[in-house]
Write a structure and sequence with these properties.
5 helices; two-stranded antiparallel sheet; 6-stranded antiparallel β-sheet; about 35% helix; alpha+beta; 10 strands
Length: about 220
């Protein structure tokens, strides 16, 4: 018994075929996105590394698969992981992806969770007002300072990371593939260009075949 893959209907109008191919690409991308969300339990499920703050355990252009913080073994800080002897990405403690100071619309940060502090410890560390709250202390493996000792131009001093600011934790990374989402427009143009080339080649081969068939009939 043999199985055959059903062939998609084609139009005599090449423009219709081109639009059909573009729609197919978007449908496939949407299906992949839904599958990633179903497996990871969070969104975005994939993030690209843009800086060297996690070198050598994560490098620029690495594509990181992110999952809900309580999936696949739970969530551990560096302090907890050291006690349990659990290594993640070449060190103790999970790498978490979080929104800096809860700000949306900016690039999330992916750093290692060091420990959890309560409100009183935050106040002792110099946080005041709304910033004096419980949360995670985080740090890039390649940085000298913890994030909460750093000042950022976009959102000031980094506060302890609240639970609700956490997108998820890093599960694994694929080298270099992160170039694609970091250059999404260029990648989309390449895909469209490939589709156009395939369509033109297909039309030329079909035309050549029809020409040969007419020649034989004569």
């Amino acid at each position: 018994m043999s199985l055959s893959i059903p062939k998609l209907p084609e139009s005599k109008d090449p423009k219709v075929n081109f639009i059909r191919d573009i729609l197919i690409v978007f449908i496939i991308v949407a299906a992949i996105g839904c599958a990633l969300f179903a497996v990871s339990g969070t969104w975005p499920a994939l993030v690209a590394v843009e800086s060297e703050s996690m070198v050598p355990n994560l490098n620029v252009n690495d594509l990181v698969f992110v999952v809900d913080e309580n999936r696949y073994g739970g969530f551990m800080t560096m302090v907890e992981a050291q006690e349990a002897g659990v290594i993640s990405f070449g060190g103790y403690g999970d790498m978490i992806v979080y929104q800096p100071n809860g700000v949306t619309g900016v690039t999330p940060i992916i750093h290692r969770a060091i420990t959890w502090i309560n409100e009183s410890v935050a106040e002792e560390a110099g946080f005041t007002g709304d910033a004096a709250h419980a949360g995670y202390i985080t740090k890039g493996d390649n940085n000298d300072l913890i994030d909460q000792d750093a000042i950022f131009s976009a959102y000031g001093r980094m506060q302890p990371v609240k639970e609700e600011w956490i997108v998820g934790k890093a599960l694994f990374a694929i080298p270099l593939i992160g170039f694609i989402p970091m250059h999404l427009f260029e990648s989309a143009l390449i895909v469209v260009l490939i589709i156009v080339i395939i369509e033109l080649v297909s039309r030329k081969l079909k035309k050549n075949k029809e020409t040969k068939t007419k020649g034989k009939k004569k």
